[in-house]
Design brief:
Blueprint: H1 2-19, E1 22-23, E2 29-30, E3 34-35, H2 41-50, E4 54-60, H3 65-74, H4 78-87, E5 88-94, E6 100-102, E7 108-110, H5 111-118, E8 125-128, H6 139-142, E9 145-148, H7 153-164, H8 174-183
Parallel strand pairs: 3-5, 4-5
Antiparallel strand pairs: 1-2, 4-8, 6-7, 8-9
Helix pairs in contact: 4-7, 7-8
Length: about 180
């Protein structure tokens, strides 16, 4: 019986470590569904639309325990990973990075300055965008939803679904949607 238990623990650890994101040279978690782009949000939005996907900007930082939690415990779940891969175009932004990026309003700044401009204070911060964005708006003004911090699997999946279903255009708030999904 002990042998069976130990085999189960080892196989679970192998599954978890195999499906968890790897750390990149910048210290951020990297997944197969993240896109390596020039970080021009208007171009990224156009590419997301051409693929029939929704644009997400995911702000993270090196050493973030909540980013680690999301990448090790939430995002690797098959139903969440496949939902993200099938429905979203994900661009990762380093909260303290120096890579230049261009906002919807045309402003070009290093990642760390752009994040400041948007008022992002905590990581992870996931910004969800509509299919069209007024070029006068900044990313923080254009979002249809934000996910500040680490959420559990059910809430994360329900928020992803709510965005894809355009729940933000309807009468049902995300909180009511989430409660209804948990009850079903």
């Amino acid at each position: 019986m002990l042998r069976l238990f130990l085999a189960l623990v080892v196989s679970l650890n192998l599954f978890t470590s195999a499906s968890a994101a790897e750390l990149g040279d910048d210290g951020l978690h990297k997944t197969a569904w993240m896109r390596d782009t020039f970080k021009d949000l208007s171009e990224d939005l156009a590419e997301a639309n051409s693929e029939g996907k929704r644009l997400i900007v995911m702000v993270e930082q090196r050493g973030c325990i909540y980013c680690k939690k999301m990448h090790e415990e939430v995002f690797p779940r098959p139903e969440i990973a496949s939902y993200i891969e099938n429905n979203f175009f994900v661009v990762q932004v380093n909260m303290f990075g120096d890579v230049e990026m261009t906002d919807f309003d045309g402003t070009a700044l290093p990642e760390k300055e752009m994040v400041k401009k948007w008022g992002v204070l905590f990581t992870p911060m996931i910004l969800f965008f509509p299919e069209t964005v007024d070029p006068a708006l900044t990313a923080s003004q254009a979002t249809v939803a934000t996910m500040p911090g680490a959420f559990g699997p059910d809430m994360t999946l329900n928020l992803l679904r709510w965005v894809v279903e355009k729940g933000y255009d309807g009468e049902e708030t995300f909180q009511k949607y989430h409660a209804r999904m948990l009850a079903e």
